[in-house]
Amino acid sequence: MSLCFQSFNYLPSSINCCLSKDTSQSSKVKKSHAMVKVPASIIPQAEESNSSADSNTTCFTNKPLTDRNFSCLDQANSVGIIGGLSVDSSLNFAKKLGMEEQETGLPFILCSDPTLNKELSSLERGYFPLLSGRTDRVHINQSSVIEKLRHKRVFLEKSGVCCVVMPCQILHSWHNEVEDGCSVPLLHMGECVAKELKEEKFRPIEAGSPIRIGVLATNATLAASVYQDKLEHELSDMQGFEVVLPDKATMEHTVIPALDALSRKDFEGAQNLFRIALQVLLVRAVNRIILASDELRQLLPPDDPLWMKCIDPMDALARSAVKHAQAAGRSK
């Protein structure tokens, strides 16, 4: 079966969905529809259409979100995903959930809003003036972004998910605002990474020094807001990590040129520059490096030995979501 969500301007009380039982390539589906293959076990109950025009289609309309009994997925271990800047990144994260829970699979709902993606793209250009060739800040209505994220969070809550995740670095700038009033855990990427690093029980590389964790991202300010506080201050039962960010010279001579080379499809040049940036951080005696960028992560092949010194925050977020889902499934 295919679950087809029509594109819409988000209105929590008026979302129309359509279940198509015909999975053949000849099925007529509008190009604006997003097709998602899902197991039949997680398809919500629907009212059969009385129309004879299409006997292979079952249609349903959601109940208003004020109805607290509404549940799109009648499974306690379902995960809600709020898509961010990159659709590919959101889909890759969904794939990670499946890889982490291969035995039974994990039901999930993914919300992706093209209008929000455009706003986030504008914000990203404002964060990276060196890449865009601009020296002025791009201003967007952040309250509008926060409101849209809250709408999606509420929709996912009412859909019956056990937790919500945002597999996007930029979205975590508003994590606290989006989380306010949430009835289920809204997992924070920085917290998930910090917990996994804590479990590693590292020893300082340099005697007498603190345990250092490097953060390599396309924007140091954003990286600090997502990871630094969580790594340095929120490990209550032990001393926090010391966070090491690339200095200005490293950003200007390796990270930014690597992204520029990647945009020109010079993958070899981008990879060489990226490796230099990693080595600069390793020389500063860091135990691990958080790769807080979708663009940079793709430059490191899966079998590269440097992964032994790196951690993918999306992996940590996926593992944490699976743990929450498994616990919710056992408690039902």
Automatic annotation (TrEMBL):
Pfam families: Asp_Glu_race. Keywords: Isomerase. GO terms for molecular function: amino-acid racemase activity. It comes from the Eukaryota. InterPro entries: Asp/Glu/hydantoin_racemase (IPR015942), Asp/Glu_race (IPR001920). This is Aspartate racemase.
